[in-house]
Design brief:
globular; mainly alpha; 2 strands; two-stranded antiparallel ribbon; 238 residues; 8 helices
Length: 238
C-alpha cells in the first residue's frame, strides 16, 4: 500500500526529495528536449499542436484564446505528461502526490485574478468582487472551494486509477498489462482535459463578470465543450 504514496529518495539540507519530485524533473527535461527537437526538425507538428489547442480553448472560453494560450497550453501539456509518465519504468506520476495537484490548482487560482486584473484593472476587478459588499464572503468561499475541488479531483482520479490498475494486475498478471496501461493513459489524458477546461471556464468567468461560478455550471461547460469536440470529430470523419 505504501507504493501508492510518494517515497523519500534523498534529502537536501534536511528537505526530503520524493520520487514524484524526481519524476517531475525528468518530465520537464523531456518536454523541453522534445520541444526543441520537434521545433527544429518538424516545426509543422508544433504548428498543428498550436492550432489544435487554440481552437479547443477558444471553443471553451467563447473568445480568442491567444492571450491565454501560453498558460493554458502549458498547463494541459504538463498535466497530460505528468499523468502519462507513470507508465515509464522507474518513474511515477507526479500527480499522485497531492502537493502537485494543489500547486497546479493554486496556479489556476492566481491566474484567474491575474487575467481579471489585467483586463479590468486592479480596482475595477476588486470592485467587482465586492459588489454588492455582502457577496464578498460568498465569493471568497467560492474561490477557495473550487481550488480545493480542482486539487481533489485530479489527485483522487489519478490515485484511484493507479490503485485499480495495481489490484487487477496483481490478480491477472498475464493478460492485464496492455489494457490497464491503456486505461491509465486514457484517464490521464481525460483528467488533463477536464482540469484545463475548468481553468479556462474560471478565467473566462473572471473576465466576463466577477460572479462566483458554481461547480454545476462549470461541469455543464465541460460537457458542452466535450460534445462540441465530438461533433467536430464526427463531421471531420464524414
Amino acid at each position: 500500500m505504501q507504493d501508492f504514496f510518494p517515497q523519500v529518495v534523498f534529502t537536501v539540507f534536511d528537505i526530503p526529495v520524493r520520487d514524484t519530485v524526481i519524476s517531475t524533473w525528468v518530465m520537464i527535461a523531456l518536454i523541453v528536449a522534445l520541444a526543441v527537437v520537434v521545433g527544429r526538425r518538424r516545426p509543422a507538428a508544433l504548428e498543428m499542436l498550436f492550432g489544435f489547442l487554440n481552437d479547443t480553448i477558444s471553443d471553451i472560453m467563447g473568445r480568442p484564446a491567444e492571450p491565454f494560450l501560453p498558460f493554458l497550453g502549458a498547463l494541459v501539456i504538463f498535466i497530460a505528461v505528468a499523468n502519462l509518465i507513470g507508465v515509464v519504468p522507474f518513474l511515477v506520476s507526479p500527480t499522485r502526490d497531492i502537493n502537485t495537484p494543489l500547486a497546479l490548482a493554486l496556479v489556476v487560482f492566481f491566474s484567474v485574478h491575474y487575467f481579471g486584473m489585467r483586463s479590468k484593472g486592479i480596482f475595477g476587478y476588486l470592485k467587482g468582487l465586492a459588489s454588492p459588499i455582502f457577496m464578498l464572503p460568498l465569493e471568497l468561499i467560492g474561490q477557495f472551494s473550487r481550488t480545493l475541488s480542482l486539487t481533489l479531483r485530479l489527485f483522487g482520479n489519478i490515485i484511484s486509477t493507479d490503485m485499480v490498475v495495481a489490484v487487477i494486475f496483481a490478480l491477472v498478471p498475464l493478460f492485464a498489462p496492455l489494457p490497464l496501461i491503456g486505461l491509465s493513459m486514457f484517464t490521464g489524458l481525460l483528467q488533463a482535459y477536464i482540469f484545463t477546461t475548468l481553468a479556462a471556464v474560471f478565467i473566462g468567468a473572471g473576465l466576463e463578470a466577477n460572479e462566483p461560478i458554481s461547480s454545476a455550471s462549470a461541469s455543464q461547460q465541460v460537457s458542452k465543450s466535450a460534445n462540441q469536440q465530438i461533433s467536430k470529430s464526427s463531421q471531420g470523419g464524414n
